[in-house]
Design brief:
Elements (H helix, E strand, L loop, with lengths): L2 H19 L15 H22 L6 H32 L16 H22 L6 H33 L21 H12 L1
Helix pairs in contact: 1-2, 1-4, 2-3, 2-4, 3-4, 4-5
Length: 207
């Protein structure tokens, strides 16, 4: 079974598990053993699914400003957790292929395997919700048809992206492409690189 077939099955399980309660405060109950790639894939999609619903909530035009700010902080933390997990998945692949000798004409890909898998996880969530819209009983037939057409495009995109990821992993495994990872180095979450945060800290230190 290909890597992406396994990944898509895990993503679908995480999405369905989340929607059993459909609550952003539901605690994750990861069914896969700790420190396995399956565990990481499940956590990745769970984070993405929760954040999908964060983004729905924060777009409420009547949201209470205090609740909106609290939600924005949760989104920021979720984004950082997502990035950290993507980097852990890339570390898995880097370790998996560490003994592969690259061919002389090996070249780089535009993104690492884990960042492509990040897109695959989010795509699975889009498919789930577009299917939901395509089957809405309280929506017009025009709305359902429109969403069904979009669903077909998303499913084709999932098929193509899955194939591309599997091909990338095969190319890395056979030395045709280089396994190289760049850390995101996000600056706005770092108290040493975000000027708003470090200037505030400097002022507090002077008091």
């Amino acid at each position: 079974m290909s890597f992406t077939k396994i990944a898509n099955q895990i993503f679908n399980r995480a999405i369905v598990d989340y929607h059993f309660e459909d609550n952003i405060d539901t605690q994750i109950n990861n069914p896969y053993s700790k420190d396995t790639i399956e565990n990481k894939l499940y956590r990745k999609c769970w984070i993405d699914t929760v954040q999908w619903h964060f983004e729905d909530l924060i777009r409420d035009p009547n949201i209470d400003p205090d609740k909106g700010m609290q939600l924005k902080h949760r989104i920021d933390k979720s984004n950082q957790d997502r990035t950290n997990l993507v980097e852990q998945i890339d570390s898995y692949f880097r370790d998996l292929y560490k003994d592969v000798k690259a061919l002389q004409n090996a070249h780089l890909n535009t993104e690492s395997p884990a960042w492509a898998i990040d897109r695959l996880s989010i795509l699975a969530i889009k498919i789930y919700h577009m299917k939901e819209q395509a089957e809405r009983k309280d929506a017009s037939q025009e709305h359902r048809n429109k969403c069904l057409n979009k669903l077909h495009v998303l499913l084709e995109q999932q098929k193509d992206l899955s194939l591309s990821i599997d091909q990338l992993l095969d190319d890395i495994k056979t030395g045709k492409k280089l396994m190289k990872v760049y850390r995101q180095m996000k600056m706005y979450n770092d108290t040493d690189t975000n000027p708003v945060l470090y200037k505030k800290k400097e002022k507090e230190d002077k008091l």
